[in-house]
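Components:
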Amino acid sequence: MAKALAPHDVNPGPAAGNATAMALWFECHQFLMHEAALLDEDCVEEWIELLSADISYEMPILLTRRRGEDPHPADAWHMKENLISLKMRVARLATKSAWGEDPASRTRRLIGNIRATAPDDTSINVASNVFVYYGRGDTSDHTILAAERRDVLVRSSGGLRLQRREVLLSHTTLPVQSIGIFI
Amino acid sequence: MSATSKAPTLDILRTKSLSAELGGRLAAVEQDLAEGLVPAWVFGNDPELYALERERLFPRVWSFIGHMSELPELGDHVIRYIGEDSFIFVRGHDDEVRLLFNACRHRGNQVCSVERGNSKLFQCPYHGWTYSNTGELTTAPAHEDAISGLDRSVWGLLAAPRLEKYRGLYFACLDPAAPSLADYIGDAAYYLDIFFGLFDDLEVLGAPQRTSWPTTWKVGFDGFGDDYHLITLHRSLLETGALAIPPGANILGHHVITGHGHNTTISIAPSNETAYWGFPTEMIECYSTAHFDDFQIDLLKRSRVLVGTLFPNFSFLVFPISIHPEVPATPFAQIRTWQPRGDGHMEAWIWNLVPASASAGFRDSSQLAAVQTFGSSGVFDQDDGLAGHGINRTSSSVAGRSMKLNYQAGFGIGTANLVEDWPGPGVVTSHRYEENSYRYTFRQWVRFLRDDAYPELIPAPRTLD
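Structure:
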């Protein structure tokens, strides 16, 4: 069978009346909504502020494989980033010649299926699904990118910070020419 | 299929003939090329043209299939494409590497639906005809009732008629009339060897990245070796410091036209400098250069960037980069194919390679350098896609199809000149802002589309024409 699911994958969500679990879910929900709004509104410098200094942001390649074989063989990635490289991607967008994203692509992130567990007092494992509407230019052409995201959020004095994100795309061959946005 | 022949191979059914209209346009391309021009329509959407490319070009050229390190174990297989046709690239239980057409001989359904795996057998899901990983038909359900009397030895999976290897790189061709891979690569090997013939232990870094481009596959060979576009399209990387080699230095070097539609470009450091693409000298010194001539050794030593394309859709690149000036640049080596995927669409397939002798740290840094800058999310590629799409839009438009695009740099305009005393093969210009290379690639492309018989592989000209 497929690889074992992490606890947050099978977490059905907070049971009604479980105030602690509901509060945790709500806290994560608010963080993810805020983050998505920043990215949709092209506030990428503010988005960087939501990242922990030791951020690991990875988007592994997906392969069509038999059931029971890991479709993300963990030997190749579309993105494999740390804070330095993410900041550099953002700095590039601020230049006058980031042609591929200037004019900016139009994105709308729809996030759901949020599942959260807190293994300890300082970190939260959150899984969510995301659909990103991605459109560019003056025609009606657009693409929908779909992914599950497996995040680790950590508590800091400034609030929650994203420490780890694994973007598990639902695409083997990317439906776009290149990924110039953050998912 | 003769009843006595073993190891059945594929035949190509050609149904398309060149219309008078398209034949006339292709003839005119040759005239335009002689003036340093390319008609825009060659990059445009054009069902008739694309149908010809599928039948006359891709089956007859040598297509890159994969690197030998992708199949380390007996039974390992991956799916690969020639044109748009699906093949299984597999190391059989007999340790032989084959390229098998991914189609059951009974009704033609695909027998392998996974992109990477290890299998002893391939079973068609339709009626269950079952093949070994060497391609032989081994059995089928109810075999006595259903297939008794069938000569299984001639009903195996069809093999690509030609599968040959250059320096660990497997290429295939579906035309028995084609020259050998070595003859097809020809003089380009002199320059590819500087990298692929130095590191005899290259390994791929995992599965290839694949992305969809809404444009013709031809923007691949047209843009990949183009140094001129760095100044503007990739200026953001100069501004942020990711491009360690500034344009004033990067322009130095040579474009080499080696014939057969192939081209190579090398950025060369001054003669007193050692470049090795940024590889540590002690790493380079672990490898033998005994099979290189003195000039190749000099090129190797001074090579900052090595880029090239083997006709029609295999490109390669070696150079050092880092996404941030504070992170030391690490060399990476990359192979790309520009896979046709319908008229006006292509996929870029991107493999990164590293010598097996590299330390774990070097290996990771090299892969990161590529993933972060030059790949499916790379800060280069984000901008390349824009231009690739833009060319196709114009070239598909009624207003733009008849435009003549300018390929005259180094052929009447600019300051790039022929190098008369070049010791290596090919016709060479210096500096690197020249566009003759692509004219000769298009000339070869025209021949494959026009010629019914196997076309002449056009040798490097004595002088630019």
